[in-house]
Design a protein that fits this description.
This protein has 124 residues and is an alpha+beta fold. Helices cover 21% and strands 38% of the residues.
Amino acid sequence: MTTKTIREYDLNIFYAEDYDVDTAEESMDEFYTVQPSVYQEDASGNVTRQYLEAFKLSLEETRAIAPDFPEEEYGTDFFMGLDFFYQHAKAIPGRVRQILSTLPPVDEVRFDEPETKWLDTMFV
């Protein structure tokens, strides 16, 4: 029997891509989308990840956060630990901080669902 050695929140922060089937054109969103996930690694080194519902930032929220994660260094789609995000984002907008504060306790996230629903409707 293996025991969990690591179980923590990660954030996937990205500019969503859209593909228009009528024009066959791809475009990239101007705003960040944030998708939390629980990263789990057991004592044997087996890694699993459970994704939670994603949320989109506004233009103002994206502009507040983006300078701390330059595209040249992080790219347009990157993962980071929730703690790392809190330590390195210099100006986390209030709504983003409020949404992230509602994440369920990491040990309560179930891994038997396709995507964990957690967002309060007041945030979307």
